[in-house]
């Protein structure tokens, strides 16, 4: 079976946050929880500023799964890392283990009591019955079951965010890097003009 993955092209990402808004809207995510966020490094430095859309990277050897005391995480055969909210106790171990800061904790009530963990599901739902109201309520849309790509990638205006079968995503990555002149002796027309020869 194919493995699913994300790829964000830092040459194309324009920090519009369309992916963040699309994710929040599609899954009706509460205020204070962001399954996806855009990070910008070297902001304001001409030629060095880069933006990346970051979420759960659905690791093949997920550290969140290793530290969870209730075993609420599981990895599907297609490599998507999901979690069972009914098993989560909100301890936060997964947040400290994840190098991407993907696990999010909503706060409930007047005193801001930490709720159960929420994270990117690659739009693949959760352990509840597929395409049921319960699944949508707990995990949001199950676009994978509908044969669609995740909402964030489908709404990316510059197609910087790519999601799907790992082999296809790798082909897109290789094509784009070759077109930019990476790892080649020849560079495409206009390369120096846009990148100052670097």
Structural account:
This protein has 198 residues and is an alpha+beta fold. It has a single domain (4-195), classed as Alpha-Beta Plaits, CATH 3.30.70. It is 26% helix and 19% strand. The protein contains 7 helices and 8 strands; from the N terminus they run E-H-E-E-H-E-E-H-E-E-H-H-E-H-H. It has helices spanning 18-27, 63-67, 93-97, 133-139, 151-154, 166-180, 191-195; strands at 4-8, 37-41, 50-54, 73-75, 81-83, 104-108, 113-118, 161-165. It has a two-stranded antiparallel ribbon with strand order 1-8. Strand 2 and strand 3 form a beta hairpin. The longest helix has 15 residues, at 166-180. Residues 187-198 have low confidence and may be disordered.
Key attributes of the depicted protein:
198 residues, alpha+beta, Alpha-Beta Plaits, two-stranded antiparallel ribbon, disordered C terminus
């Amino acid at each position: 079976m194919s493995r699913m993955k994300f790829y964000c092209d830092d040459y194309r990402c324009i920090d519009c946050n369309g992916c963040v808004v699309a994710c929040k809207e599609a899954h009706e995510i509460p205020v204070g929880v962001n399954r996806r966020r855009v990070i910008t490094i070297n902001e304001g430095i001409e030629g060095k500023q880069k933006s990346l859309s970051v979420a759960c990277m659905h690791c093949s050897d997920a550290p969140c799964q290793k530290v969870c005391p209730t075993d609420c995480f599981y990895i599907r055969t297609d490599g998507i890392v999901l979690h069972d909210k009914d098993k989560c106790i909100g301890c936060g171990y997964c947040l400290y283990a994840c190098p991407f800061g993907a696990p999010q904790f909503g706060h409930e009530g007047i005193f801001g009591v930490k709720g159960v963990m929420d994270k990117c599901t690659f739009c693949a739902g959760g352990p509840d019955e597929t395409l049921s109201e319960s699944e949508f309520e707990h995990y949001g849309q199950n676009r994978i079951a509908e044969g669609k790509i995740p909402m964030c990638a489908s709404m990316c205006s510059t197609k910087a965010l790519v999601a799907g079968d790992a082999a296809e995503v790798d082909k897109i990555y290789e094509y784009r890097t070759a077109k930019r002149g990476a790892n080649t002796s020849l560079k495409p027309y206009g390369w120096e003009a846009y990148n100052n020869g670097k």
